[in-house]
Amino acid sequence: MIINNYIDRLRDNRGYSENTIKNYARTMGLFNSYIKQKSWNKRNINDPKKIKIGIIENFIKSQRDNNKDVRTCNNYLACIKLFLRYCLVKWIKTENFNRVVFAREPRKKIDALEPGDTEKMFKYLRNTDPKTKYGEIIKFRNLVILQLLLYTGVRVSELINIKVEDVAEEMQIVGKGNKPRLINLYDDDLRLIKLYMFMRRNIEGEYLLISLSGNSKGKRLSAVSVEKTIRDIWKAAGIKWKVFPHKLRHTFATNLLRANANIYHIQQLLGHNNIATTQTYLTVLNSELRDTQKLLHQKL
Length: 300
Fold this sequence. Notes:
By secondary structure, this protein is mainly alpha-helical. It has helices spanning 2-14, 18-38, 53-65, 70-89, 115-126, 135-152, 156-159, 187-199, 223-236, 245-258, 263-270, 275-279, 282-299; strands at residues 170-174, 180-184.
């Protein structure tokens, strides 16, 4: 089936992350179902020559009608365009997919935590009184999670794949598109990690962050578990708004900008391919600058 061949091509040659590949496979399945449902001359995705521009445009419109946001629909379109480009490589003639244009996306709003919020999360964890068998280890594991997300800017997918043997002052991780980069660990990071590792010394597991429950004990902690951990912390710490792991990455970048860090250095630390992605964090500072300038007008 041509969809499977396309997905295999992405996995082998494009260097996409596994999450991106899953999303693209899901998109192609959704698009194929739409084509079959409409039954245009019994068309399906295995006959790309019959996929007309109007079909693609109507599919995207149907997703917008189902309350999918502009960014999601543009991601769908990017996936379909790449599929048709793949068909051309395989000498399958298709419509000129460049005639379908991306919708303009609203400027992405970056949310970052205030210093008081991060301190509340750390304070809650430090003051937790463990009551279960592995409670003390879980407490320090969660402190390591919070510390690394806030002070290294790693993505959750990168965090859960750190192995014990990888931990060092300069630690190489593999980011999006299998792109390696270095992150730095400092004395407070390393002290916390070493304490956590000492506490779990009798529990085998090659990954730094492991599960401590049931049959999963010693296995790598999942991204879902990290998200749940962060959710439990911010709720218990009394923070009024939702906190996701990626918001901690936003906080890392925003705090560096507030400290007058070079944006090109921040780009390298975050592992962004495009400086424009990093520049979205400037919107937070622009808002703060407007508020500062407003003070002058209030005195006039």
